[in-house]
Design a protein that fits this description.
It is built from 13 helices and 18 strands. By secondary structure, the protein is an alpha+beta fold. An 8-stranded mixed beta sheet has the order 1-11-12-13-16-10-9-4. Helix 3 packs antiparallel against helix 4 and helix 7 crosses helix 12.
Length: about 425
């Protein structure tokens, strides 16, 4: 959530940012409600002052007729204060609703565009493998090796769920351990987080728990939701707290299942494991001082690059355009790995990392006490260490052999105990 005064003082820039992000939000309405709230607060304070003066006037000896007048005046003030408080509460609720529609400001260097095809490629690592045979996609490879079962999962849980089987189970665990050890080396505190969070925590992070366009699974009558990422649970961990400045930055990583409805997501790019309703992910999350967030954002991206370089996978880094950022993000980097089985060979997103500045911390009320004694909002960042389902797509397709077997990347072998998956 942006600061209301910032919106008022930078109205044209905020409106241009909304347009660049291809979003719908009414900044003028936010300013109108903000001004109205300010006026109502001033009027309420004046009424409260009069009430206090009225009460003070009734102390001591007061003539009966004067006391009667003061009592009537006090009753009238009480009714006015109650009405004023009610109007203020309604206005604050409207302001909160309107204010939550305003996206974070985008980094001035973020490319302006509406869709992901307008993202800017900034780096390439490795070269796509040249096969001397026709490569298969991961679905065919995994089914031939009895590593996955979509049909039985559809029978049990519905479409876009799956059973991992045999060596694929060890491969998933190996990816998690491999990434965890890299994050431990970089000083991250590891968590296994809840797979459920309260709706207000999701809203604070920037997820919409309800509505037809929501990608969140809500638990009826509980006020909770299945998490779409451990960003939610790690971001909510310090909600409502004032953090010790000397202990910042706090670098956490959280392992969780992720649940996404993926409403409207269909087509060839959603095939198999690439877009599913449940998957395992190891997420990085950082709480830091405002002046540290740009440098830490670079660090998160470099860690993602380290993980995928260590897996021997070709990938590229893209600077995400304004229309593809997502409301909380100030800037976002995506890593896209080469996937030979994707539409004859294409890059597909495997990780992202976002600097959300103080957008989430304002919603979740996470602050630190600065040296001047004032409480200020921390900056919050997130980044995917490994989303196992998509990483598995890239590994299986890039490491396939002509006989249908899959060579296990050297970095994963100590964790899974084998170097090749055969028929």
């Amino acid at each position: 959530m942006l600061d209301y005064k910032f919106i008022k003082d930078n109205l044209d820039a905020v409106k241009a940012n909304i347009k660049n992000r291809n979003m719908t939000a009414d900044a003028d309405e936010v300013v109108r409600l903000y001004n109205k709230r300010t006026e109502l607060v001033t009027a309420l304070q004046e009424l409260q002052t009069k009430r206090n003066e009225n009460a003070k006037s009734m102390k001591g000896k007061v003539p009966d007729d004067e006391r009667k007048r003061l009592i009537e005046e006090g009753k009238a003030l009480k009714e006015k204060i109650a009405a004023s408080e009610k109007e203020l509460a309604e206005t604050e609720a409207e302001l909160d609703t309107a204010g939550r529609q305003i996206p974070n400001m985008a980094h001035p260097d973020a490319p302006v565009g509406k869709v992901d095809t307008e993202n800017l490629e900034v780096k390439k690592v490795g070269s796509p493998r040249k096969f001397d045979f026709e490569p298969k996609d991961h679905v065919q490879l995994m089914q031939d090796l009895d590593l996955i079962d979509f049909d039985e999962a559809t029978k049990v849980a519905g479409p876009k769920f799956y059973y991992l089987k045999n060596e694929a189970v060890f491969l998933e665990q190996a990816m998690v351990m491999y990434a965890l050890n890299i994050l431990r080396k970089h000083g991250f505190t590891p968590f296994i987080t809840p797979d459920v969070a309260k709706a207000e925590i999701l809203q604070g992070i920037g997820f919409n728990p309800r509505g037809n366009e929501s990608n969140v699974y809500c638990i009826e009558e509980e006020g909770t939701c299945l998490v779409a990422t451990a960003e939610i649970t790690l971001g909510g961990y310090h909600s409502g707290e004032t953090l010790d400045k000397s202990k910042l930055p706090l670098k956490y990583c959280g392992l969780s299942h992720c649940f996404r409805r993926e409403a409207g997501a269909a087509g060839q790019f959603s095939k198999g494991l690439y877009r599913v309703h449940q998957f395992t992910k190891l997420e990085m999350f950082v709480y830091c001082l405002p002046e540290e967030s740009d440098a830490l954002h670079e660090q998160l991206r470099l860690i993602e690059e380290e993980i995928f370089t260590g897996l021997g996978l070709p990938f590229r880094v893209v600077d995400t355009c304004t229309g593809d950022l997502g409301a909380p993000a100030y800037r976002k980097w995506d890593l896209e790995a080469w996937m030979p089985g994707r539409n004859g060979g294409e890059y597909g997103e495997v990780t992202s990392t976002s600097n959300c500045t103080d957008f989430q911390s304002r919603r979740l009320n996470v602050r630190y006490k600065d040296d001047d004694g004032k409480n200020k909002y921390v900056h919050m960042l997130n980044g995917t260490a490994v989303a196992v389902s998509r990483a598995m797509v890239a590994v299986i397709e890039n490491y396939q052999n002509e006989d249908g077997s899959i060579t296990v990347p050297e970095a994963l072998r100590p964790f899974c105990g084998f170097d090749v998956i055969k028929r």
